[in-house]
Amino acid sequence: MTEVEGTTTVQVAVRVRPLSDKEIKEGGTECVEVNDATVTLHQDKDQPPAVFAFDHVFGLDSTQPQVFETLGMPLLDKAFEGYNATIFAYGQTGSGKTHTMMADRKSDDRGLIPRISDNLFQRVSRLTSDSRKFLICCSFLEIYNEIVYDLLVPRGKNTPKTGLEIREGKGIGVYVKDLQEIVVDTSDKVLKLIDQGFEHRATAATQMNATSSRSHCLFIIKMHQKDDQNAANNNFSKMNLVDLAGSERASRTGAQGDTLKEGANINKSLSALGNVINALSTMSGGSKKVFIPYRNSKLTRVLQESLGGNALTTMMAALSPSKTNADESLSTLNYAKRAKTIKVNATKNDEAEQIAKLEEEVEALRTKLSEQASGLADTSRYENQIAEMEKFMKQTWEDKERQSLEHEEERKRLEQEAQKNIERLNEERKRRLRLLEEKGDLELTVQELQGLNGGDRGSLYTSTWPGQISRLLALENRVTAQCRAAALLKDAVIHDVEHWCEKQKQVQAGEEDGTGLRMLLQQAERKVGTMLREFESLGKQEQELAAEVATWMPQVQRAVVGIKECEEEDKTEEGGKDTSTASNEVSEEFIQVLGLVLRQLDNHRMKIWGQIAEDHKALGGFTTHLQTLADCGRGLGADVGPLLEEMKQEEGSRRLPNHGDEVAAALASPQGLTSEELPDANISASSNPQACGSVRLHGGVNRMKAAFSGWSPVSDAASEYIQVDLAKPIWVSSFAMQGRRPISGDWEATRPLLAELLDPGDPLPPSRFFKRPPVRLIHDVVVAVHGRHQALSAGKPDFTAAQLDYKQLQNADRQAKVDFFELLLAKAVHAIKGAGWQDKVPPLKVSPADILGGKNTSESNRLLQILCYLGLRKKLQNVGGLTDVSDQWVKKFTALWSDNGKEWTPFTAPGVKEPSVFEGCCDADTVRLVHLGLAQAPKAVRYLRLQPQEWQSHPGLQLEVYGWADGKLKVETPIPPSLRDRACRLDVIRRRGELLQQGLALASAAALERWKEAQQAEQEKTKQAMAERSQVEQQLQDAVAKLEEMRKAYDLLQDQAAQSEQKLLDAETERLRLGVEQDSSTAQVKVLEEKLAQAMEETGAEKEKVKEVEGKVEEMKTINEDLQQQIGVLTEERDIARAREEELFDTLAVKEEELMNTNEGYVYLTDQLNEVKDEYAEKVDECDRLIENLNEQNKKLLDEGLKLRQDLGDTKRKLAEAEKAVQRAEQGLPVSFKVAKDAASKENRPERAVTASPTDVGIEESPSKVREYQDDFEDE
């Protein structure tokens, strides 16, 4: 640093750091050579080396003390002499600026600022005496996104959004208003302030640097000396120690989101700094009329005095020696070369001279104030400036110390208040967590989780959870409603069975005639069939509920483990450094609530299945009725022996598994495939072992192990298998399976796939770059696929050498980049057709504009995945469907278990010899939970094998195993008692219901036989009565026939009697003659009369018999009519009962439908209310932002109007003075209007000149210089 007061140039030093581990991994070689005071940069072979000369050059082996002795000591010397001094470090991000300026502030490797602080107070201690005193004040600020913040003041709600204001005053220079100045008396206090400021400084991780500074940092040390014996020592000085944020390119840093915006503001301010240096360099070359654009950036405004004012300035340029950063190093060296030509005019800051300047400025302001006091212009600006300068002049050492103490007390008070707020916040957090845990409401906890900061990874894990918890609760309500409906139906069945049994007993006791029993039995049998169908529907709904919980649990476990390992993964990517940023930072409360979600999900699962099992109790109770039913069936003559035997064996029957579905759903948990608790060594396969890590459901926690998105064997054969060692005996209850979709467009799947394609030593970009693939990443993949594996060589035209050279493509125009990507897309389509994948992969829907603009990132990732598989198809041989890009899933599979991994037993149902074949997936996306059901293993097992039997395209799958440790059901007390009760198992209830149905069927069959026998007997009786009736009718007919014959005989006898009478008359006449014959005729007549009387008696008897037969016929007709009436009544009762039953079932269905519609309507209204609330909140926020913007614009307009009124008042006043001066001059009077003095005062105020816009001055900004600090692809 110069020893002479006056004009001098900026001192420039260059420091080259060693190669970093990242650069070594990237294959970087040294291209910077240091020799004395020169730096030689070796670029490409076709370009000559660039040689630069500077004041100081520090090589790879330079030390911190060496840098301090060369740069820091001269700065301190000049500061004690009363000169302002500045050191600022410049260079690309990750080049070592902060290491040189700060480093570890408490070690021997500390940087310039801590060493300057130590040496400063050593000198002060040595020079302090009774007559000589020193007052040292420190300030610390940062410029973040073009806003100035005080790093010594914690930011809060009261921190203005516009930051601190930059002011300038004569005698004071450029300063930051309201910037805290802390009086320090020891080096430890300085270090404490530095630590305090660095806690508030903005940093973030980029691909170039794990702790990249996202703001410009300025540490200011002001020193005021007073010497009562030597007035020459009464001076003050200011040391500006600047750590600039690194220049960066988005393609190199991979910045996105807020980090990208920060990088843009950093480059903008550095570009403005470059323009100022260019302008100052031009002015130093002899050009006088040069506009210096200090006001184009807050950085250049703060450094105005350091660059072209009253300060001795040193620039320390930091370089990376790697050839991969040669372009940035060349830019930095050119920057430093231009800075070396800048001339500065440093003057000694004498106290008396500075006070005189301030008094002169105050007097000038008072003059202006008095001139405008009578006008309408606003004079408050001058009054404020006068008050501020008088305050500065009158401020004593004691005032500064008092203010510093007050600030220190205020800072401590604020820190204590902040600590109390943190403690209150922590207590509130604990209280809320405790309330959430006590309440046990899983839905409320998930809602709370959504409102916490989980970073990008947390949002990725938990974004679908609100929908899943809604589906889960809806399924629970459906299961509960189905249980109640089934319970009502079961009660109806039991009522009918009891009623029938009671009636049957009465019939058997002779108390009833048994009318309608068979109809009642048939009704009960139909209800039992309906009940069993309802049980089956309930079982399906419970399986859906179990599947919903089971598929959600591994996601929660994966989130818990993944969040914990997220930071370690980021450290691994960046060489062990902490790369946490605002986008991926996860709050401690989020982690706690996430763990609470896992615990509550487990407890909720246990609770709901305990409740479901308890509800199952209401579905049972068939045992006592089964025995009664069997007794009644036996009374009917049914063969109930087999039924009684099954009832006796039902408790210990092996027809059912050891554990019911309720126990499996409540206890079974993922066995560590998804959460990676089960190590990779426990997974093996019959082929393609490199894909075993991909078999984990959802890709596991570390997606780098799941490159192939699932496992697929070499051959499409049923003998292929995937094997899992569970590490301990487990009661296996189910499997969760998912297909394999190689080309998904998921950015998380692209990086592990690329790692498989690249060689082990090749560098791999961090995962965050795949969210929005930059051009460099896609180009590198193309080079790897095409250059190494010739996977895109088919088709014409081919890539040119310039297109495959990224540097040439980077410097090319936009059209050249568009042509490259159009050719890439065309060759990719050609390669897809060549591989026969045109029907397996949907067409790419991405354009070169999308790639260059970072849009349609899902399709960009699909393109990268297709390129990787094209390369892997060439790289990997004999891997079967592993490199096929079609969707793959297993439709059917068998499973085997083993205790030792050698002897295998298939999962089979009891009594079945053939292995059970389980239904797998129906597509590649849906996760299907496969219950083992009756095929459960008879004991806890350790080893499992799955063998695909049917598949789509190829056997591809992802897997999770569910089960629980042996003995868990017996040991753990929190398990609800209903889960241990066999009577609460739905399969047991269904089995007993089937036995009840079987008993009713036997009773119904026996009753049918009884009814048939009764019908047959009745028919026999009817036939017999009819036969008897026919016989009587025949006898009657015979009697009538005999009567007719007798009548004919009677008529004949009458005729004979008439003839006899005639003969008697004739004989009368001959009586005398026939006296003897008369006696004989009389005797014959008497005999005939006796026979006639006898015949008449027989005829009366026959008539009585006919009447008796006719009475019996009438009686039979009456009985028949009574029977027909009874049958009609029973038929009518049966129809009425059936109609009533159907009406009840219809009513029940309508009520259930109304209940479901009501629930769905409630859910819909709740969703609508939440959406309306969210929209209202967004509109309120939007209105607040609009009002704030309007207020700011109104304020700006008011300021501009005020300024215009002031300028108008000044103009009017000057015009009036000029007119008066002209009039006085015309009259020959002396003129007091001093134009030259005002013009001179304007020239002495440089800020007046810089308020002009660049268009007012004939200076053009160099586009090439601006472009130097822009991103290499502005389209990104």
Summarize the structure.
The chain is an alpha+beta fold. Helices cover 56% and strands 12% of the residues. Mean pLDDT is 79; it is low at 204-212, 250-255, 571-582 and 1233-1276.
Explain how this protein is built.
This protein has 1276 residues and is of the alpha+beta class. 56% of the residues lie in helices and 12% in strands. The protein contains 35 helices and 27 strands. The strands form six sheets. Strands 2, 6, 7, 8, 9, 12, 15, 16 and 17 form a nine-stranded mixed beta sheet that branches. β8 (132-144) and β9 (147-150) form a beta hairpin. The longest helix has 152 residues, at 1075-1226. The two termini are 43 Å apart. The model is unreliable at 204-212, 250-255, 571-582 and 1233-1276 (pLDDT under 50). This is Kinesin motor domain-containing protein. Residues 1237-1248 have a biased composition (Basic and acidic residues). Residues 348-439, 1008-1140, 1169-1228 form a coiled coil. GO terms for molecular function: ATP binding; microtubule binding; microtubule motor activity. Belongs to the TRAFAC class myosin-kinesin ATPase superfamily. Kinesin family. KIN-5/BimC subfamily.
